[in-house]
Amino acid sequence: MKFLALSTSVHRYTDSGIHTGMWLGEYTHFYDVLTEAGHEVTLASVDGGAVPIDPVSLKTPVIQLGGTNKRYEDPEFMDQLDDTPAIADVNLDEFDGIYLIGGHGTMFDFAVDEVKQAVAHNGRRSSGTVRRPSLR
């Protein structure tokens, strides 16, 4: 099966300017479980391009949970975060499901129409660990 993992593109809180982004462990754990089971995972982001990583997700002991540190130290794995397609450019029919990757940046950009349409397109085949964005 083929799954799309969708990340935020937001790298700072709107009001405070504090850095945020994808919670790295929430992607690495999903990726590892699915690829070890023989499934394919493709990473995309809301706007496309480089995926920002929440710096708190890189701190000890958080980064040591579930082997996230091993993935962070793997240049081949981390390269996939450098240039992702935008969700608007992804053919959703190619995927069996969508996973919404957590991180506080999702509060700012997961409520855009492209994300809502992707979730609606896949219906019950969508899952995630997002930080309470408004998907109304």
UniProtKB/TrEMBL annotation:
The identity of this protein, by name, is ThiJ/PfpI family protein
Q: Which InterPro entries match?
A: Class_I_gatase-like
- Which SUPFAM superfamilies is this protein grouped with? Class I glutamine amidotransferase-like
Q: Which organism is it from?
A: Corynebacterium lehmanniae
